[in-house]
Amino acid sequence: MLEIVKRMQRVTLILKLCVDQFLILETMTPLDFMEFRHHLSPASGFQSYQFRLLENKLGLKGELRVRYNQENYTKVFGDEPQIYKAIIVSENEPSLQQLLSRWLERTPGLEETGFNFWKKYKMAVDATLEEDVREAEAEENEGMRTHLHTQCKRRRELFDSIFDVRIHNALMARGERRLTHTALQGALMIAFYREEPRFNQPHQLLTLLMDVDSLMTKWRYNHVMLVQRMIGSQLIGTGGSSGYQYLRSTLSDRYKVFLDLFNLSTFLLPRNSVPPLTRQMKSRLSIRESGGVGGVVGVGGGGGGVGVVVGEGGNTYDTQQQQKQQQKQQQQQKREGDEEIGVGSVEGEGADFEGVGGGGGGVGGGGDGSDLEKSIERSCEASM
Questions:
Q1: Is 340 helix (H, G, I), strand (E, B) or coil?
Q2: What is the DSSP letter of 71?
Q3: How far is CA 64 from CA 26, 73, 96, 120, 254, in A?
Q4: pTM of the model
Q5: What is the mean pLDDT of each run of 10 residues along the chain (384 residues)?
Q6: Is the dihedral of CA 310, 313, 317, 323 positive or negative?
Q7: For 240, which of 66, 170, 216, 320 is 20 to 30 Å away at the CA?
Q8: What backbone phi and psi angles, to 5 degrees, belong to 316?
Q9: Are 343 and 298 in contact (CB under 8 A)?
Q10: How many CB atoms lie within 10 A of CB 373?
């Protein structure tokens, strides 16, 4: 998870640089642009297949795209078989949005036989809405009381859209929701309990994905404004498109891949209304469970070796309890005079162990462990 967050931070910095480059282009006047515009025809930015690949890999669905000259966006690449094939493949491969949805569905605490976050959250919402109704009824001004009752009704309908799976699925079919019902629950739980160790980096990832969506939208907006500045809003684009009018249509929420993450704030509750974690659930969010979604990076005993535990999901959390346990193990090893042990063996259901022994040269757990970076990369791939 740490590696994923690091790479997403890199992606956001690259996109920020792309957005800022428009500042240089905006120093050009329309007359300056007219001097070389005819050399660009019939080329068009719409023909940038790499931008289409980026959109598809993020998770932009074809049915949500605005049609280009009343045709599918892939038709413009029909004369280039290799490029056309690459775009079709990218449409059928699992996208980042799809992988994110699957990952969120495994969020610990959603189990009905366990903490059952969704049930507790629904009870908290009901209590909050009932309090709003009581406040509305206590309002003395009739006009304001009617307005408050209308607001309460609208808010109830809004929450019903996430509690009723049929309504949610209907919104997904219309393209107004992106995440599955269970994945949306996971995203909400991470948002509420983001300060817990196990949810800290997942929350960072969700924030970075929103940053990517925002920067893509800013890039589109800056492009639209530059086009309007250079050729106005009526002139046809160099590639034969409607130019400004077409580009402006791509600024809608249809082109936001992670739209649901932005809309999570609609369903948040005040801190004093958030369902409290049970002692058992708080423990689960503080440590890595055996065979669960997560991973541990540890520094081992007397020989000073380093090891990596990779479990399903590959998240990395180093808690105080684990540190204390490691310290006790180190003290025990020193008392026994065993300076040859590099790293204590760690086992977990579904986990692989790779470690490198320290001063004594011992190798832990059955992997050659010589390439720590590759181990982390495999962990990140597993988590997505």
A1: coil
A2: B
A3: 30, 11, 17, 35, 6
A4: 0.73
A5: 94 97 94 89 78 95 85 86 93 96 96 94 96 92 92 95 96 94 98 96 98 97 93 67 80 95 96 95 79 39 36 43 62 56 38 37 39 47 48
A6: negative
A7: 216
A8: -120, 115
A9: yes
A10: 8
